[in-house]
Amino acid sequence: MFDHFECVKVELTDGIAWVRMNRPEKRNAMNPQLHDEMEEALTHLEVDPDAKVIVICGAGGNFSAGQDLKMFFRENEGNPLGRKTSQRAANRWRWELLYSYDKPTIAMVEGYCVGGAFMQLLATDFAIAAEDATFSLSEVNWGILPGALVSKVVADAVLPRHAMYYCCLGEAFDGHEAERIGMVNFAVPAAELEAKVEELAHKLMAKSPRVLRATKQAVRNVRTMDFGQSYDYLAEKGLAIRVGDQEDSYNTGLRQFLDEKAYKPTFEPFKTGTMIEKK
Ligand code: COA
């Protein structure tokens, strides 16, 4: 299905879709074609029942060196239509699509993660980095500011002084620092990166997809709501989970804990595939 792609590679193994930015010779700098292919890949995977968790990563040992300064910026100068089209495509998958994606998403960061790549880094639900990864909000070093939504998503993700420091200095930092300031969930030795990502993916796959989807949407959306809106939204969202939940998770979980003493919700998910049909 994705054989015609040149800038994105998709591998589907054991429920995990590895979606790789694939321009290793350019450190996976994102050109307009890569943006189009990412949008196509992610849209298909969102409805593919074999894809349970999506991992956004890069080929050749790097996440991404950001927007392609030649093909995305320079070659679109004097071409407002090309520029607008590329910008829209870039923003659609890096933000709109990933931010509200139906399935859990993980960014796996190794090597370089620069500039515009912070959009998909922060749009994913989780991020794990190699300790020796190199992050940089480099824009200030070549005469622009972190544009599209980069300044916004960085400012939302970390404490104000961290956002100000790294946006204004453009100083590179490693995976440990990314973890310290909350840019990624955790940093691990490079040799363990893929295994840690798989471990997290399998943990996510053990949850009810419907409950997980509602929970991640709720965590994102309440950030901009006041208390009244949050009470109301979360109550309705809680009810909405129950409609069409194939595992009847709420009743199954309660039954397994209270009646069957089969598990402890504090430590593990309930056992799936044991729903009792209502008469
Ligand atoms: N846009 C376009 N081309 C890029 C690129 C980018 N963002 N990042 C790297 N490349 C290209 C280089 O021009 C080079 O192309 P060439 O082989 O045709 O000369 C190739 O990728 C390899 O890059 P190089 O700089 O030789 O590799 P490196 O490993 O020594 O350094 C980086 C890697 C990422 C540190 C360095 O390339 C860099 O600083 N890139 C700019 C990143 C940036 O500022 N991105 C922000 C965009 S929003």
Summarize the structure.
The protein has 279 residues and is an alpha/beta fold. It has helices spanning 32-46, 69-73, 80-99, 117-123, 150-157, 160-169, 175-180, 193-205, 209-221, 227-242, 249-259; strands at residues 8-13, 16-21, 53-58, 105-109, 112-114, 126-130, 134-136, 173-174, 186-188. The chain has 11 helices and 9 strands.
Rounded to the nearest angstrom, the distance between the terminal CA atoms is: 42 Å
Provide the list of bound ligands, each named once: coenzyme A
Q: What is the chain-wise order of helices and strands? A: EEHEHHEEHEEHHEHEHHHH
Structural class of the secondary structure composition? alpha/beta
Gyration radius, to the nearest Å? 20 Å
What's the β-strand tally? 9
Number of helices: 11
Neighbour order of strands in the largest sheet: 1-2-3-4-6-9
**Mean pLDDT metric:** 96
Largest sheet: 6 strands, mixed
What percentage of the residues does DSSP assign to strands (E)?
5-15%
Range of helix content: 40-55%
**What is the overall shape?**
globular
Low-confidence stretches: none
